[in-house]
Amino acid sequence: MPVLRYALTAVLLVAVVAGCGGSGSDSSRSSATQVIVDGDGAFDDVKAILYLLEQPDIEVLAITMSGTGIGHCPAAAENVSAVLERIEAPDIPVACGRTTPLEGNNEAPEVWRNATDNLGGVDLPDPRALAGVGAPALLAETISASDGIVLVALGPLTNVAEAVEAEPGLLDRVEMIYLMGGAVDVPGNMIDVNPAAEFNIWADPHAAAIVFDTDVPITLVPLDATNAVPVTPYLYEAVSAHRDASAVSQFTADYLDATPLIGGLYHWDELAAVIATDESVATIEDRNLAIEEEGGAQAGATLESPAGRVVRVAVDADREAFEDHFYQAIIGTGDTGLPAWEPDASLTWDGTACSYAGPDPLPDLLVVQINNLGVDPVALITGAYAPGTTTADAEALRASGSTETPEWWKQQALIGVLAGAHDVWFVEGGSDITALCYLDNTRFWEIAGPRLTD
Ligand code: RIB
Fold it and tell me: How far is the centre of ligand 1, averaged over its atoms, from the C-alpha of 226 (Å)?
């Protein structure tokens, strides 16, 4: 078997968005909370924006897109602008930010970025014209004109930090930043690069440090909380069943059709947006956090440190409460009419042993939830033994110290899952396919399918 290699949640390869009605600049809603969204145009950003737009007590005043995250600029900004047009949202200025981090050169793989740039190919009208200013200027204008505003930050903090550098007191008018980013008590999701870092902070650690150095109150929504809200097929089924409810549900359904779930996705940004409207969906604790700025690709961790600043950290989330809010906004009802979702199979690593509950042998296709309750990454590997392979071959591998894939194992798929995560994946099986719970070449266990014999 191979050395485990993990891509920052294959996730982001599955580009995308979703979409009506709600807020915008309706002056009749004088008591609405005024909000700016700063994001990076990824799969979850768009759904988070749609969620906020649908809140009757939220007025989205501006949307800024970072060019240093998953989407490129201007593609990310144009996509959001086209989505606003498609769902007939009020006029909300959308602006684009710089394409390089303030410091360093951490960047998502181009393949993810390109996949995000067309939102999976979902049908979109021509975008509305972008704001005549760049993202930092739009942030500054909007914040300065407000009496108090909430910033929902869903991507790298490049735009916000650039605006702060130009006007150091700018964030004094911001009541709270709800920030999707970081990993506090759990590993990050840049594990091949920097296992301690989460993408949004990793992509521009200096920008994050600049924002952390201000006095603005921050509620962080890190992987600790988002690990509780994996994307499951339920999202697809629920939205599809209510696709005709509104322009938003129609758009979201089309978008999901265009970007089928493979696995490993979480409602990262949607959870941050929901927490911004109702903190009771999360467990929030004060922590002292600092941003690790040194080390290039090794930078970007959110570290507990006495030298850090107080941050309100969402350490957990209530999945059902989150879903109630989210579906209410996207499909117009928290009651989807569907039975609660259950995976076809589950694999749980508790730090010592693997337990599997599900069909054996494997059907041709199954949806598996992989719960990693340990402290190391764990993987579900599928493949087939070469004819004649015996338990002795497996024991010899365990004893050899080799990290190579043995010639007697024809691997089909390797799904790596980070400690603390609850990934949901589609897995191809079949009667001849063996599934292994795998930590390394000395620790692997057959969990379904044909077993080795002596
Ligand atoms: O690590 C998850 C974050 O990375 C999310 O904000 C997602 O949109 C991507 O930017």
Answer: 10
Candidates 157, 200, 221: which one to mutate for ligand 1, based on the most atoms within 8 Å of Cβ?
A: 200
The answer to whether the beta carbons of residues 119 and 16 sit under 8 Å apart is yes
Distance 154 CA to ligand 1 centre (A): 7
Backbone angles phi, psi at 418, to 5 degrees: -70, 155
Asked if 422 and 319 sit in the same domain, the reply is no
Percent of the chain scored above 90 by pLDDT?
89
Q: How do residues 258-298 score in pLDDT, each as one tens digit?
A: 999 999 999 999 999 999 999 999 999 999 999 999 998 89
> Look-up: residue for tokens 């200027």?
137
Contacts of residue 438, defined as CB under 8 A and 6 or more positions apart, other chains included, come to 1, 4, 378, 379, 380, 381, 414, 444, 445
Place of tokens 């024991």: 395
Q: Which is the closest atom of ligand 1 to the Cα of 269?
A: 6
Contact residues of ligand 1, CB 6 A cut-off: 40, 42, 44-45, 69-70, 154-155, 180, 189, 198-200, 268-269
Q: Mutate which of 154, 223, 271 to test ligand 1's pocket (most atoms within 8 Å of Cβ)?
A: 154
Average pLDDT, the chain: 92
The four Cα atoms 207, 208, 212, 216 give a dihedral, to 10 degrees, of 80
Q: Is 144 left (phi over 0), alpha (psi -120 to 50) or beta?
A: alpha
DSSP 10: G
Which domain CATH number covers 148?
A: 3.90.245.10
Domain contains 337:
no
Distance (Å, whole) CA 107 – CA 202: 9
Which one, of 286, 226, 149, lies nearest residue 160 by Cα? Answer: 149
Note whether 40 and 160 are same-domain residues. Answer: yes
Residue 129 to residue 142: CA distance in whole angstroms: 18
Distances (CA, A) of 35 to 8, 17, 68, 125, 153: 29, 20, 22, 25, 10
Query: CATH code at 388?
Result: 2.60.40
pTM: 0.92
Q: Which two tokens stand for residue 377?
A: 């990454």
Query: Does residue 336 lie in a domain region?
Result: no
Cα separation, 170 vs 163, whole angstroms: 8
How many angstroms separate the alpha carbon of residue 341 from the centre of ligand 1?
A: 24
